[in-house]
Amino acid sequence: MSLIAPTLQAFFTDRLAQQRQASPRTIASYRDTLRLLLRFAQTTTGKAPSTLDWDDLNETLIAAFLTHLEAERHNSVRTRNLRLTAIRSLFRYAAYQHPEHAAVINRVLAMPTKRFEKRLISYLNADEARALIDAPNQERWEGRRDRAALALTLQTGLRVSELVALNCGDIVLGTGAHVRCEEGKGRKQRSVPLTKPTQTLLQTWMIERAGTPSDPLFPTRTGRRLSRDSVERRVATHAAEAAKHCPSLRGKNLHPHVLRHSCAMSLLQAGVDTAVIALWMGHADVRSTAPYLHADLAIKERALAMTTPTKVRAGRYRPPDDILAFLEGL
Q1: Which of 11, 64, 167, 238 pairs as cysteine with 135 (C-beta 3.0–4.6 A)?
Q2: Average pLDDT, the chain
Q3: Which backbone phi and psi does 180 adopt, to 5 degrees?
Q4: Catalytic center residues
Q5: DSSP string, 243-312
Q6: Is the domain defined by 4-109 classed in CATH 1.10.150?
Q7: How many CA atoms, within 13 angstroms, populate the side-chain half-sphere of residue 130?
Q8: Where are the domains positioned within the chain?
Q9: What is the pLDDT of residues 99-118, one digit of tens each?
Q10: 126-305: what CATH class?
Q11: What is the pLDDT of residues 258-294, one digit of tens each?
């Protein structure tokens, strides 16, 4: 008999932290998933988490847990699949540690992800982006900070985690102006060039900010880094203000990642190659750019314009018989 507890601890300390050098966000996501799973197993089996065995976490319990996430916690299918990915990662690690439980582990690893409807991405057009940038109150320090942050995000497509992690030293102005992202998704480092308007706005902000190279570029009033939640709240606040002057924003659920989508769509509509967009956005695979192609109706319209229309004679269907005509008319 081999308990789960020692393997679970080694999974976090050895596998994730040392071998994979997973990011803090990945570790936190896996932690939350397994904590929910162990609490569900405790309620279901009546055993304390430290006394659970691998046979207790069989495919039946895992399936019930996934159903619990959707039915009782009202998680989306995406979140459900993300939880299953974390569970699979633990069980793959356990497969090498506990071959005596290979049957149970393999049945859990064979559980498929759930299919779901993929919606078109949401993004801002040029007028909506301009309205959002102009929304913050320029008479307030926070408004000037937010305006610079919004302009930078819309032009560079930074993830919100990358935005809040920026230091003053990550902005390079002058010839070859760019922003450096040291710790993006997958720990990939990249540099994104800055346009003249964005460079001018950042230069004005950095003079007012007056921080050292190691200070956060967009801090709170107390000098701490903005959190992801605070950025989401600021974007929602400014979106509501911008919607007063730009009616098309009223029907959009605006969150920080929409700004990233907007950057990618602006590049795509300008004719930039998808491989370059993938590098710009920090995508691990060019296929990650495919959703933007699906969302851009203009690209499809240009493709339609290049095709030869099929010649079809105009006309209407006429039933060949009176009784058929009667049935058609019912």
Answers
A1: 238
A2: 87
A3: -100, 130
A4: 159, 185, 257, 260, 283, 292
A5: TTT-GGGTT----HHHHHHHHHHHHHHTT--HHHHHHHHT-SSGGGGHHHHHH-HHHHHHHHHTSPPP--
A6: yes
A7: 6
A8: 4-109, 126-305
A9: 999 999 999 999 999 987 76
A10: mainly alpha
A11: 999 899 888 888 888 888 888 888 876 666 676 666 6
